[in-house]
Amino acid sequence: MPLDFTAIDFETANSSSASACAVGLTRVRDGRVVATAGWLIQPPPGHDRFFELNSGIHGLYAEDVVGAPTWSEQLGDIAAFAGADILVAHNAGFDMTVLRRACEATGDSCPPYRYACSLQVSRKVYDLDSYRLPSVAAEAGFTDFPHHDATADALACAHIMIDAARRVGAADISSMAEILGIRVSQIRVSEVEGMPVPALPVAAVA
């Protein structure tokens, strides 16, 4: 199996995990970046207040997302980009929770993506003082990117995974997880939510 995956990064408007206000995506095929994308999102109603703390981190404010697609409107674009890929994110638990909670807030079905965490990978592969995304990306040879820009962060995450796979001699995400002793997890929609779980789309070929 080739090293194929989609790296993803969300920024949030406030402390609610459902308050997605931007997403970045990077598609990797056979260990190479072949496509990137990113866009602003109107957070779901009730989760759309922008906290000064969050805005101070990513530089986005309520006026920036006026006219941007809603969570429901843009969810199909995420699915179309990622296809059936394993998703990868730095501190993936955060980003997968954003995906799931935003779907809960809008009543959308959350695709049951499989995912891996580049933070977990980093701690196994690199010996660093800090495992924050910029520090790890620099060790992987990807430097000088605007941290907390969702598109840039997704690209940095992708480069970390590509470099880590090369260092450990892994052919794909599953074999990397096995070599490093980490899990490839899966988003699971609680039965309490009562939402049908859709089939994943077929991955697009870049």
Features of the shown structure:
alpha/beta, 17% strand
Description:
The protein has 206 residues and is of the alpha/beta class. It has a single domain (5-188), classed as 2-Layer Sandwich (Nucleotidyltransferase, domain 5), CATH 3.30.420. 37% of the residues lie in helices and 17% in strands. The protein is built from seven helices and six strands; from the N terminus they run βββααβαβααααβ. It has helices spanning 52-58, 71-82, 92-106, 118-125, 133-139, 150-168, 173-180; strands at residues 5-12, 20-29, 32-40, 87-89, 114-117, 185-186. It has a six-stranded mixed sheet, with helices on both faces. α5 packs across α6 (150-168). The longest helix is centred in the C-terminal third of the chain and has 19 residues, at 150-168. The radius of gyration is 16 Å and the shape is globular.
Number of DSSP helical runs: 7
Instruction: Kindly identify the CATH topology.
Output: Nucleotidyltransferase, domain 5
Largest sheet: 6 strands, mixed
List how many beta strands DSSP finds: 6
Please give the CATH architecture.
2-Layer Sandwich
Please give a quick description of this structure.
The protein has 206 residues and is an alpha/beta fold.
